[in-house]
């Protein structure tokens, strides 16, 4: 592995965000060539400052650990990246460079406060009061969003309402309780929503928050508060500040699920959002594959509630693409592959699903996007999302434009213009090749476009990195309803909206016994989340808030047998398709919250460390 590839991984994972946390923690202005007075004299400088605050709301947080490597859906090929240390249990409060974002978020919270305190200084001739009010609303949203990122990763945070000088006594800044932190975020979102529209009329404002985005963050906070991690978790019974203040709620309250359900339903009833389909993209007839694929490839659409354009599309595509053009770095797992439904809407362990584990498919699928003759039967007759989101051995490479580009990914005896990905041992993307190799036999396809040519490092502008989307609100709603009112018909109605867009029959058709059964329906709701939101970090945060990530089945990671020597047999080598243990990860329940790094604890003696660290 060359030094360049290591640096590339850091780029595409955006680990530089964490490395910069200390230096950004006390930044006072976006451009050190300007004095503070100069910043607030022109519209251009004030807007540049706000744009700088926006950069804190970028794509994957803290080195992409949540969507690439910490949950059971993915791993990273290079063993020296931070998330690989984390899942091996090798991380402490003293080595947070690869995952810490506490100081990074507070750096942007500080910038947000500075903007709030100074934007009114801009002369009216430069910036109208209407725009000032709008920008202050956006800024309040951003600050609330940064606090939300802290809450779901670290738990209760220090509520800061004014600037803190470098020489100030840090010992007086202790953490607020969980409920106080929730109230603070909700207050900022309410304040922001009062100055934001439901929908922006100009496309030039796409990417700015709306009332719906404020509602969505409040809904996500309510969901977090209702889930097992924070709703009467006995492990947090002694989680207190130094003065004895209780930081976590003590008892379970089912009413918190009602609050979360109402928050989601309010977004649904706002009627500003809908599930994207290919019909919104010029299609003449509904196609589930194009619908779930192109959701991530259009510039903006009505499913996106909150998105960020500040992410590296090229870096991501390079990392998830097969060799030799890509780096094979982000690997999907067999755990995730097994979670996808068959196209009849049934799970692969259901005898009625018609799932076949072994052998090669003898014919092409009826759909253009499905399996092909010669694919392993494990990949045959699966649901549309499987083919849109997973690259498997023999699947044609996606980010290759011409026939010559596709042939570039094929060994000499496989050149046929299709560019079938060769993950087997001697293949071009196999373990025998030089560099970073695929470790599970799978790569993500979500967000990867056929108009890209990663061989030549060409990626086109596409959708923003989606942070919150409408499908998430729908599944949040049914999850919350199921916890306190499992017979509510809305559970089937809104769950089936997501399944129908994915080309699956309704849940009451495939699994009628689950309807009205809280435990059975919970299983299908969480499975739907696992599939629908794969590689979007939802799996990680869902397993954390529901205290499930530490379950043995979620720490035992499988892939294909990529190390089995095919002896030149290539795609016909059946030994590749043996489920093989890739990782038995190390887990400790303290990992449900991230530690605050030692430097911040030493700076603020009132800070208490998270339990177990």
Sequence stretches where pLDDT stays below 50 over 5 or more residues: 1-31
In percent, how helical is the residue content?
Answer: 25-40%
Q: What percent strand? A: 5-15%
Note the total helix count: 23
The 3D shape can be described as globular
Mean pLDDT: 92
Q: Termini distance?
A: 33 Å
- Largest β-sheet summary: 2 strands, antiparallel
Q: Structural class, judged by helices and strands?
A: mainly alpha
Folded structure, characterized:
With about 625 residues, this protein is mainly alpha-helical. Helix content is about 35%, strand content about 5%. It has 23 helices and 8 strands. Helix 17 packs antiparallel against helix 20 (about 520-530). The two termini are about 35 Å apart. The relative contact order is 0.13.
Quick description:
By secondary structure, the chain is mainly alpha-helical. It is 37% helix and 5% strand. The two termini are 33 Å apart.
List the helices and strands and how they pair.
Layout (H helix, E strand, L loop, with lengths): L2 H11 L2 H4 L1 H5 L10 H4 L3 H12 L19 E3 L5 H6 L14 H17 L10 H26 L23 H16 L17 H16 L28 H16 L17 H7 L9 E5 L4 H8 L9 E3 L1 H6 L44 H6 E3 L10 H5 L34 E3 L20 E5 H15 L5 H12 L5 H4 L7 H15 L5 H8 L6 H4 E4 L20 E5 L13 H6 L10
Antiparallel strand pairs: 1-3, 2-6, 4-5, 7-8
Helix pairs in contact: 1-13, 5-7, 7-8, 8-9, 8-10, 9-10, 10-11, 11-17, 17-18, 17-20
Keywords:
single chain; disordered N terminus; mainly alpha; 23 helices
């Amino acid at each position: 592995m060359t030094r360049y590839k290591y640096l590339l991984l850091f780029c595409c994972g955006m680990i530089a965000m964490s490395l910069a946390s200390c230096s950004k923690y006390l930044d006072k202005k976006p451009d050190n060539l300007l004095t503070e007075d100069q910043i607030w004299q022109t519209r251009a400088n004030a807007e540049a400052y706000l744009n700088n605050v926006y950069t804190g709301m970028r794509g994957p947080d803290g080195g992409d650990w949540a969507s690439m490597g910490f949950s059971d859906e993915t791993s990273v090929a290079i063993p020296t990246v931070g998330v690989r240390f984390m899942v091996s249990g090798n991380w402490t409060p003293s080595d947070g460079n690869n995952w810490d974002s506490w100081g990074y978020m507070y750096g942007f919270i500080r910038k947000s406060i500075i903007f709030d305190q100074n934007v009114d200084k801009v002369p009216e001739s430069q910036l109208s009061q209407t725009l000032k009010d709008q920008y202050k609303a956006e800024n309040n949203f951003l600050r609330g969003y940064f606090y939300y990122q802290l809450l779901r990763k670290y738990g209760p945070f220090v509520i800061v309402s004014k600037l803190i000088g470098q020489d100030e006594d840090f010992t007086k800044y202790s953490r607020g309780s969980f409920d106080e932190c929730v109230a603070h975020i909700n207050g900022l979102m309410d304040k922001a929503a009062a100055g934001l529209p439901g929908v922006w009329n100009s496309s030039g404002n796409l990417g700015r928050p709306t009332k719906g985005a404020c509602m969505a963050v409040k809904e996500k906070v309510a969901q977090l508060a209702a889930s097992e991690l924070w709703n009467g978790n006995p492990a947090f019974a002694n989680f207190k500040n130094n003065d004895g203040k209780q930081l976590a709620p003590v008892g379970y309250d089912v009413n918190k699920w009602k609050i979360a359900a109402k928050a989601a339903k309010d977004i649904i009833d706002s009627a500003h959002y809908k599930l994207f389909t290919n019909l919104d993209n010029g299609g003449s007839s509904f196609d589930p594959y194009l619908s779930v694929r192109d959701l991530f490839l259009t510039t903006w659409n009505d499913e996106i509630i909150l998105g960020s354009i500040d992410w590296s599309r090229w870096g991501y595509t390079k990392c998830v693409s097969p060799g030799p053009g890509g780096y094979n770095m982000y690997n999907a797992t067999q755990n995730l592959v097994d979670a996808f439904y068959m196209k009849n809407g049934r799970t692969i362990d259901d005898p009625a699903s018609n799932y076949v584990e072994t052998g090669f498919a003898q014919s092409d699928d009826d759909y253009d996007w499905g399996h092909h003759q010669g694919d392993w039967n494990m990949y045959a007759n699966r649901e549309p999302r499987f083919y849109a989101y997973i690259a498997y051995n023999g699947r044609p490479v996606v980010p290759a434009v011409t026939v010559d580009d596709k042939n570039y990914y094929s060994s000499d005896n496989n050149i046929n213009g299709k560019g079938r990905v060769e993950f087997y041992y001697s293949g071009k993307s196999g373990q025998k090749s030089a560099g970073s190799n695929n470790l599970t036999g799978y790569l993500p396809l979500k967000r990867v476009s056929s108009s890209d040519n990663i061989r030549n490092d060409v990626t086109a502008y596409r959708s923003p990195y989606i942070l919150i989307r409408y499908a998430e609100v729908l599944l949040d709603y049914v999850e919350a309803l199921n916890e306190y009112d499992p017979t509510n018909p809305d559970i089937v109605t809104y769950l089936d909206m997501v399944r129908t867009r994915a080309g699956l029959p309704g849940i009451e058709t495939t699994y009628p016994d689950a309807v009205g059964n809280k435990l059975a329906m919970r299983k299908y709701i969480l499975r739907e989340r696992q599939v629908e939101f794969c590689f979007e970090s939802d799996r990680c945060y869902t397993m954390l808030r529901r205290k499930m990530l530490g379950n043995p089945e979620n720490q035992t990671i499988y892939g294909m047998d990529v190390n089995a020597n095919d002896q030149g047999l290539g795609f016909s080598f059946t030994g590749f398709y043996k489920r093989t243990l890739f990782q038995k990860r190390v887990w400790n329940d303290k990992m449900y919250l991230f530690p605050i790094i030692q430097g911040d604890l030493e700076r603020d003696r009132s800070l208490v460390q998270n339990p177990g660290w």
